[in-house]
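Internal tracking record. Fields below are filled automatically when a chain is submitted to the structure queue. Please do not edit lines marked as system-generated. If the sequence contains nonstandard residues, flag them in the REMARKS field before resubmitting.
Queue: standard
Priority: normal
Entity type: single polypeptide chain
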Amino acid sequence: MKSHKQTAVIYARVSSVKQVKKGDGLGSQETRCREYADHKQYQVIKVFRDEGVSGSLINRPGMQAMLKFLKKHKHENPVVIIDDISRLARDLEAHIQLRTAIGDAGGKLESPSIEFGEDSDSKLVENLLASVSQHHRQKNTEQVKNRMRARVLNGYWVFYPPTGYKYERVSGHGKMLVRDEPMASIIQEGLLGFASGRFESIAELTRFFDLYPEFPRMRNGKVNVQRVSDLLRRVLYSGYIDVPQWGISLHPAKHEPLISYEDFQRIQERLDGRAKAPM
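SYSTEM-GENERATED OUTPUT FOLLOWS
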């Protein structure tokens, strides 16, 4: 008689694009899961992956594809192998929902790192481990935020660079904003022109920026008026950092400003209709 091997699928996940590009997280997870499957004499028939997807999300492409596959092969009661409990989810609520969804689809969860059971003690241990994983995720998020906030307080922008700037590594400063030419000079001329009254309206400034193909555009090829309006409100161009959600306002920055703070104030006065008439 032929021995019938238990069918199994592997689920692997990494949370960042960096892990996908530079690391071998997915490959190492699959290798460990295959070693476990060989030890248990399971036949791996499919591998599902989620690349650069947070563990707090439930509707992941790889996970949804796996659940669909499990339902189709429900009569085989396939085993779902994960490298570690954190690969399933890094949030207790998401873990419980996915655990239930896998069971409802006919799958049985197994891992070389933990024994999943249906008794109360096993469920308690499983939920405790899921809670610890959630705590680690939240703690990592807090630490990243604290490091970023500390760098902002040291005068460095840490978010996506605004139009006219780019990031470069500078000796003694690390990665910081530097002028991105020719856009820096184009933005500078536009801001100074609006501050001085050369451009009497946002529409006129928009037409000026439209003369330069380097300026960012919408899909229809036009310069977005709202983008220009937002640009006029960015204090970052005057050498100051403003991050209200972190309680940071008008903090001196280390990068080279495109305009003075006085020019920035003139721009705000014109936008708010408070510009003084020339003497």
